[in-house]
């Protein structure tokens, strides 16, 4: 009985009409951030790109800033860019999709300091403008979380703001997640960012009561739409994730507005 109650609660707060996002006719994309690195931003952004492309939307992707200890391939320096380009089925040049890459797994600020290199801020914003002209909807994956330092006085949130896209926050659903999500939302508001919604990722089949209840509590505390709760999936991850996302009214709204 308790288990069933939890599941019903989950679906009630996800699908109630009063919580549907405003009709965003001209939404030109979303900025996917997360409460941490490794939380599932790339997988979610890929799933979203894949399902929107399947629904006939001319969808582009961008990974403005990436860092990593090794180069992914000759074509793409970052694995995230490679995965995003594959999911969206596009073949733009790596430099356009990912204008800033440093071969040290650190924040762009620290990596650029260590390498004595400069951050290609203008290229990032020019590339974004080019992608916005070319595509009807652009999915931008951040790096780490919204407070990741890019330059001495600019954080990732400043770039999300300059791009003018609403945020999707990706989180897991576990003890500690409420704190991480509330901190991310507080920071997003400080940057003046709009929030499109929250996606809970990697919900285990054997999730505890606390893990199952976390999305409901986040919704109660924030009133921000919960776009979807994605299960832990074993294979074909971004396609499985995309199929889950498509069941969400918030993702469907993105399709009907284009
Ligand atoms: N729903 C999921 N089920 C199972 N594994 C997942 C899921 N989402 C992401 N992962 C895995 O978690 C790891 C980190 O995900 P990733 O999307 O790269 O995170 P981030 O972009 O936030 O660093 C990857 O190995 C990815 O395949
Ligand atoms: Mg990533």
Radius of gyration: 18 Å
Oligomer: single chain
C-alpha geometry: globular
Supply the number of helical segments: 11
- Order of helices and strands, N to C? HEHEEHHEHHEEEHEHEHEHH
Strand content: 15-25%
The tally of beta strands, per DSSP, is 10
* CATH architecture assignment: 3-Layer(aba) Sandwich
Mean pLDDT value: 91
Q: Name the poorly predicted regions.
A: 1-11, 15-21
Unique bound compounds: adenosine-5'-diphosphate, magnesium ion
In which order are the strands of the major sheet placed?
A: 2-5-1-8-9-10
Sheet/helix structural class = alpha/beta
Give the biggest sheet.
6 strands, parallel
Q: Assign a percent range to the helix content.
A: 40-55%
As for the number of domains, it is: 1
Give the CATH superfamily. Answer: P-loop containing nucleotide triphosphate hydrolases
